[in-house]
Amino acid sequence: MSQQRQQEFITLYQPVHDRFERFCRARAFGDMDHRDLVNETLLIAYKKFDELKKRDSFISFLCGIASRIVGNHLQKRTTERLEDAHLQRSDGQVEPELSADVHFLFEALAQLPEAQREAIILFEISGFSIKEIMEIQRAGESAVKQRLKRGRERLEEILKYESSLKI
Predict the structure, then answer these.
(1) What residue ranges define each of the domains in the chain, with the CATH number in brackets?
(2) Between 129 and 74, residue with greater pLDDT
Protein backbone atom coordinates (compact mmCIF):
# COMPACT_ATOMS: atom_id res chain seq x y z
CA MET A 1 0.00 0.00 0.00
CA SER A 2 1.35 3.42 -0.88
CA GLN A 3 2.42 6.02 1.64
CA GLN A 4 -0.68 8.05 0.75
CA ARG A 5 -2.98 5.07 1.48
CA GLN A 6 -1.21 4.45 4.80
CA GLN A 7 -1.73 8.05 5.79
CA GLU A 8 -5.39 7.92 4.76
CA PHE A 9 -5.90 4.78 6.85
CA ILE A 10 -4.29 6.41 9.89
CA THR A 11 -6.27 9.61 9.37
CA LEU A 12 -9.53 7.66 9.35
CA TYR A 13 -8.56 5.49 12.31
CA GLN A 14 -7.32 8.11 14.78
CA PRO A 15 -10.70 9.78 15.46
CA VAL A 16 -12.48 6.44 16.00
CA HIS A 17 -9.75 4.70 18.00
CA ASP A 18 -11.33 5.13 21.45
CA ARG A 19 -14.82 4.07 20.36
CA PHE A 20 -13.42 1.10 18.48
CA GLU A 21 -11.27 -0.01 21.40
CA ARG A 22 -14.28 0.19 23.76
CA PHE A 23 -16.26 -1.92 21.28
CA CYS A 24 -13.48 -4.52 21.10
CA ARG A 25 -13.04 -4.59 24.87
CA ALA A 26 -16.74 -5.29 25.38
CA ARG A 27 -17.10 -7.61 22.39
CA ALA A 28 -14.12 -9.76 23.23
CA PHE A 29 -14.78 -9.99 26.96
CA GLY A 30 -14.22 -13.50 28.19
CA ASP A 31 -13.52 -14.86 24.73
CA MET A 32 -10.20 -13.31 23.76
CA ASP A 33 -7.90 -10.45 24.66
CA HIS A 34 -9.37 -7.22 23.30
CA ARG A 35 -5.92 -5.98 22.25
CA ASP A 36 -5.53 -9.04 20.03
CA LEU A 37 -8.93 -8.31 18.51
CA VAL A 38 -7.98 -4.67 17.84
CA ASN A 39 -4.67 -5.65 16.27
CA GLU A 40 -6.08 -8.46 14.15
CA THR A 41 -8.95 -6.25 12.98
CA LEU A 42 -6.60 -3.42 12.01
CA LEU A 43 -4.37 -5.80 10.10
CA ILE A 44 -7.30 -7.17 8.09
CA ALA A 45 -8.81 -3.70 7.61
CA TYR A 46 -5.48 -2.40 6.35
CA LYS A 47 -5.21 -5.25 3.85
CA LYS A 48 -8.80 -4.74 2.66
CA PHE A 49 -8.74 -0.94 2.84
CA ASP A 50 -9.06 -0.59 -0.93
CA GLU A 51 -12.38 -2.44 -0.75
CA LEU A 52 -13.90 0.25 1.49
CA LYS A 53 -16.17 2.23 -0.79
CA LYS A 54 -17.46 4.88 1.62
CA ARG A 55 -14.81 6.39 3.87
CA ASP A 56 -17.46 7.69 6.28
CA SER A 57 -18.35 4.04 7.02
CA PHE A 58 -14.87 3.26 8.33
CA ILE A 59 -15.97 2.53 11.92
CA SER A 60 -18.69 0.19 10.64
CA PHE A 61 -16.08 -1.47 8.44
CA LEU A 62 -13.87 -2.07 11.50
CA CYS A 63 -16.69 -3.31 13.73
CA GLY A 64 -17.91 -5.71 11.07
CA ILE A 65 -14.44 -7.20 10.72
CA ALA A 66 -14.05 -7.43 14.52
CA SER A 67 -17.41 -9.16 14.87
CA ARG A 68 -16.47 -11.74 12.26
CA ILE A 69 -13.13 -12.37 13.98
CA VAL A 70 -14.86 -13.00 17.31
CA GLY A 71 -17.42 -15.25 15.62
CA ASN A 72 -14.69 -17.26 13.94
CA HIS A 73 -12.75 -17.46 17.19
CA LEU A 74 -15.80 -18.80 19.05
CA GLN A 75 -16.41 -21.43 16.38
CA LYS A 76 -12.83 -22.66 16.60
CA ARG A 77 -12.55 -22.49 20.36
CA THR A 78 -12.51 -25.85 22.09
CA THR A 79 -10.86 -24.85 25.36
CA GLU A 80 -12.11 -22.71 28.22
CA ARG A 81 -11.91 -18.93 28.30
CA LEU A 82 -8.56 -17.48 27.27
CA GLU A 83 -8.36 -14.36 29.39
CA ASP A 84 -10.64 -11.91 31.24
CA ALA A 85 -10.59 -8.27 30.18
CA HIS A 86 -9.87 -5.67 32.86
CA LEU A 87 -11.00 -2.09 33.06
CA GLN A 88 -7.93 0.02 33.75
CA ARG A 89 -7.39 3.62 34.70
CA SER A 90 -5.24 5.77 32.47
CA ASP A 91 -2.27 5.13 34.78
CA GLY A 92 -2.60 1.38 34.17
CA GLN A 93 -3.98 0.55 37.62
CA VAL A 94 -7.14 -1.50 38.01
CA GLU A 95 -10.14 0.28 39.59
CA PRO A 96 -11.35 -2.48 41.95
CA GLU A 97 -14.97 -1.37 42.43
CA LEU A 98 -15.48 -0.34 38.85
CA SER A 99 -13.67 -3.42 37.58
CA ALA A 100 -15.99 -5.67 39.60
CA ASP A 101 -19.10 -3.88 38.33
CA VAL A 102 -17.88 -4.06 34.75
CA HIS A 103 -16.98 -7.72 35.21
CA PHE A 104 -20.55 -8.54 36.37
CA LEU A 105 -22.03 -6.48 33.54
CA PHE A 106 -19.88 -8.24 30.93
CA GLU A 107 -20.75 -11.63 32.40
CA ALA A 108 -24.43 -10.72 32.11
CA LEU A 109 -23.85 -9.52 28.54
CA ALA A 110 -22.22 -12.85 27.72
CA GLN A 111 -25.52 -14.57 28.56
CA LEU A 112 -27.42 -12.66 25.87
CA PRO A 113 -27.93 -13.99 22.35
CA GLU A 114 -25.18 -12.87 19.96
CA ALA A 115 -27.19 -10.23 18.05
CA GLN A 116 -28.64 -8.68 21.22
CA ARG A 117 -25.23 -8.58 22.93
CA GLU A 118 -23.61 -6.92 19.93
CA ALA A 119 -26.41 -4.34 19.62
CA ILE A 120 -26.20 -3.46 23.33
CA ILE A 121 -22.42 -3.13 23.19
CA LEU A 122 -22.54 -0.98 20.09
CA PHE A 123 -25.29 1.32 21.36
CA GLU A 124 -24.77 1.55 25.11
CA ILE A 125 -21.01 1.07 25.50
CA SER A 126 -19.54 2.27 22.21
CA GLY A 127 -22.07 5.01 21.50
CA PHE A 128 -23.09 4.02 17.99
CA SER A 129 -26.35 5.31 16.53
CA ILE A 130 -29.20 3.02 15.49
CA LYS A 131 -28.35 3.79 11.86
CA GLU A 132 -24.70 2.76 12.36
CA ILE A 133 -25.77 -0.44 14.12
CA MET A 134 -28.14 -1.22 11.25
CA GLU A 135 -25.18 -1.01 8.89
CA ILE A 136 -22.86 -3.07 11.09
CA GLN A 137 -25.41 -5.80 11.80
CA ARG A 138 -26.91 -5.64 8.32
CA ALA A 139 -30.39 -5.44 9.82
CA GLY A 140 -33.42 -3.17 9.64
CA GLU A 141 -34.20 -0.41 12.11
CA SER A 142 -37.00 -2.33 13.82
CA ALA A 143 -34.79 -5.41 14.24
CA VAL A 144 -32.03 -3.35 15.89
CA LYS A 145 -34.50 -1.58 18.19
CA GLN A 146 -36.07 -4.91 19.12
CA ARG A 147 -32.64 -6.39 19.91
CA LEU A 148 -31.87 -3.42 22.14
CA LYS A 149 -35.23 -3.61 23.92
CA ARG A 150 -35.08 -7.35 24.50
CA GLY A 151 -31.40 -7.22 25.42
CA ARG A 152 -32.00 -4.53 28.04
CA GLU A 153 -34.94 -6.46 29.49
CA ARG A 154 -32.91 -9.64 29.70
CA LEU A 155 -29.92 -7.82 31.23
CA GLU A 156 -32.20 -6.35 33.86
CA GLU A 157 -33.52 -9.83 34.71
CA ILE A 158 -30.01 -11.30 34.90
CA LEU A 159 -28.60 -8.48 37.04
CA LYS A 160 -31.60 -8.48 39.40
CA TYR A 161 -31.27 -12.23 39.84
CA GLU A 162 -27.54 -12.01 40.51
CA SER A 163 -27.99 -9.19 43.03
CA SER A 164 -30.66 -11.19 44.85
CA LEU A 165 -28.14 -14.04 45.24
CA LYS A 166 -25.66 -11.72 46.97
CA ILE A 167 -28.10 -10.78 49.74
Answers:
(1) 1-85 (no CATH), 94-167 (1.10.10.10)
(2) 129
